[in-house]
Request: fold
Amino acid sequence: MSIKDKESNTNKNRGFLREFLIYVIVVIIAIISATLIRSFIIEPFVVPTPSMEPTLKVGDKVLINKIAYKFRPVKKGDIVAFNSQIEEKDLVKRVIAIEGEEITLTSEGEIYIDGEKITENYLEDSSSISYLNQTIVLGENEIFVMGDNRNNSFDSRFFGPIPEESIFGKFVLIYWPPSRW
Reply:
């Protein structure tokens, strides 16, 4: 083997090593980026219960925007993900009322916020819903949440208002199954 051949092999080995290191660095950057995005920006979430049907079904894979409420307050109608204070799991529910509001539920299935009846177009069949008559005044940083499947939802009617700080994100979209897009 000549000196030129040895130099050529050495250059090839250096080129291979350089290329390999670039791939390793790219993979490490991708892993760090994915971890940071998941930890601070967008989190995939699997819907654990039928409480949000028909809007969200059990097993739907959804994206939760973890920074949404860093820039704006929680609003009525938002679908939020939060850490349950009662159960040892995260839940997804719809915000019905926010701090300082008075929510009244009636046995006829009606909801009043500060004396005004609300309309909930996202409910599939509201005629079969009934609530225990109750009135709750929300305190500072308290949110009242309910599932869209009212007759099959463990929500603020049972465990009370949730603290706003337990909300970790806002529902963005369903990404799986594709038929639910």
Notes: The two ends are 63 Å apart (CA to CA). Residues 83 and 90 are 5 Å apart (CA to CA).
